Structures are given as structure tokens and as C-alpha cells.
Amino acid sequence: MSQKEDQSKVTQRAEEFLHVFKKGAEFTQQLLRENEKLRFQLVQQEEQSRLSGCAGQAMREVESLKAQVAELEREKQGILQRIERVESENIDFANRYVEIEAENNSLANLYIATYQLHSTLDFRDVLKTISEIIINLIGGEEFAIFLLDENSKTLQAVAGEGVAVNRLPVYSLGEGPLGVVALSGESFFAQSLDGGSSTSDAPLACIPLKIKERVIGVLAVYKLFLQKRHFADIDYELFTLLAGHAATAIFASKLYSESERKLTTIQGFLDLLTK
């Protein structure tokens, strides 16, 4: 074989080797590119999975926070309701305190008034003091004091305010509201106080003046001052206390007046005998 042929074969093999080498290099490059793409896709999938997990965790945390917010809202509503109840109770206590304070003041004023009532034995002064108590403590604008005549068994007006005492009718026991109260010994109070009444046949209140179970007269209230629209609980207590004290004071003053008259008569008779 000639030297040219040998060189030609060597060259041919070298070219074949280079061709195979290039093919291998290209295949390797292609594998690297595919590997890079796969790695990138894997990274993307891992990132997506991580993000999906984070989103799920975030959603769970959001749901948990919503539940906590709802629970806190329920607790807040409960606290607000308790606060409203406490505020309502405080208002009730404050109103009750004002009522009790007013009742205490009224009772204190009544105590002072009854002290003045029992500090005199003059019949006219007693009636005047009773009238002042009715005006200042109960708010009576028109009223009258009737006393029972034991002989005729009739009620006759002896004092009053805002009414013509001498024009008031005389009541027999059991006659009209006053006669019924005098006979039964039980107080009478009208259901409605709107506007009051100036009619002697329609009093707003009739209170018996009693010493124990003995009725000696009746207090009749016909009209209240404009600022007073109804009887308060304290008014019933004041009426009851006033009736007892007024009856005692009137009875004592009448006894004193009668004893004074008798003493004067006896003294006059003795003076005539000694002359």
C-alpha cells in the first residue's frame, strides 16, 4: 500500500472521529440543556408547591383569625349588654335614691310640722297648721277639713283653702264620698287626678281623721296644684300620718277649749257665790 493511501485513510478516520466527537458534544450539550430545563421546571414546581402550601397555611390562618374575631365580637356584645344592664341598674338606683331622698325630706318636714301641730292647744292654730301641711307637703290647692258632730251625726266643714267653707254641704254618715269615708273609716282616692275638681261632690281624696278606730272628721282634697299630676307613694304615707296627728291635735285642742270654757264658767259661778 502506498504512502498516499495510508495518509488518506488516516485522514478519513480522523474526520470520522471528529464527526463522532462533534455528535457526542452536541448530544452532551443537548442533554445539558434538557437537564437545565428539567431543573428549572423542578424549581418552578417546588416554588409553586411552596407557594401553594403557604397559601393554604395563610388561608387556614385567615380562617382562624376570622373565628377569633367572631369570638371577640360575641364577647364584646356580651360586655356591652352587661354594661347596658349595669347602666340601667345605676339609673334605677339613682332614681330610687332621689325618690328616697324626697321621701326623707317630706317625712322630715312632716315631723317638723307635726311638732308645731302639737305645740299648741289653740283650735284655730291647729287648723291653720294642718292647712299649711296640706299645702306645702301634699300640694293641695283646694281642700276642706270636716269634723263630725256627735249629736247630729253629720260632717260640717270647719276650715279649708280655695273653697268657701260656709257653702260646703253638710254630710250625714254614709252620704256621699265623705259620709262613706266617715262611716267606714277607710280612705278614698280618685283614680285620675287630671285637672282636679272643684266640685264638693267629687273630691280627689277623702281621708278619715281617726283616733284609734274612732272617726272624728274627714279631710277632703278637691284640687291639687298644677305641677302635681298624681299622688306619689309618699303622699299616701303623708296622708296616713297627717290624719293621725291631725285627729289627735284637733281632739286635744277641742278638749282644752271645752275645759277652758267650763273652767271659766265654774270660776264665774264661784265668783258670783263669793260676792
From TrEMBL:
Q: Where in this chain does the entry annotate a coiled-coil region? A: 28-103
Q: Which SUPFAM superfamilies match?
A: GAF domain-like (SSF55781)
Which UniProt keywords are present, listed alphabetically? Coiled coil
The record's section on Pfam families has: GAF_3
The protein's matches in InterPro entries, at most eight in alphabetical order, are given as: GAF (IPR003018), GAF-like_dom_sf (IPR029016)
Q: Which domain of life is it from?
A: Bacteria
Q: Where is each GAF domain found?
A: 122-260
The name this protein carries in UniProt is GAF domain protein
Q: Which organism is it from?
A: Syntrophotalea carbinolica (strain DSM 2380 / NBRC 103641 / GraBd1) (Pelobacter carbinolicus)
State the organism's lineage: Bacteria, Pseudomonadati, Thermodesulfobacteriota, Desulfuromonadia, Desulfuromonadales
